[in-house]
Write a structure and sequence with these properties.
This protein has 189 residues and is α/β, with parallel strands linked by helices. It is built from three helices and 16 strands. It has two domains: 58 residues, no CATH class; 128 residues, 3 Solenoid (UDP N-Acetylglucosamine Acyltransferase, domain 1), CATH 2.160.10. Strands 2-5-8-11-13-15-16 form a seven-stranded mixed sheet. A hairpin with a 4-residue loop joins β15 and β16.
Amino acid sequence: MINRVARIIARSMVEPMVRYENRRTRRGEVEFSEWNVMFASMPGAFGNLMRGVFYRRTLAKVGCNVVFKHGSFCQYKNITIGNNVFCGYYNTIGLVNFGDNIVVGGFVNFVSGRRQHGVSLNGVPFWQQAAEGRAVVNIGSNVWIGSNCVICASVGDDCVLGVGSVLVKPMENKTVYAGNPARKIRDIA
């Protein structure tokens, strides 16, 4: 009963924000990020519930049994998330599509590809240069990602990425990768 009441309260709090968000055009991406940061800072079970309700109403697709712990947030609306996905504390999620049955440790940064910032010496400061192109990162199904990883490339199905790894090249299916840069450690049988 308490859980049901909490869901109703969360929906009633989130719904006006979602309506406001849906009326926005180009500016909406910035405001979406600001709402994310607000929801990410809510601790405890109620914060988990608020993030879940908000993401189900705003992201492209969110499956069942998806948890975003305190401090975790999505930067873009066109993210898809499958079923049984657990995102630990303080994760930053760029343009990413998640499969099913995924566990992500804390402090993981999902970067939208390796070429999202310009780096030319053309007289224009780096921060003012146009992006070279963001890429969608795909995370397969049955994946375990350790804490403190930076992910710039796609992860295959049935994979494990070791703690503190920096993934700059796509992972093969059924493998364990670790290190900086992440390298294949072994196959999973």
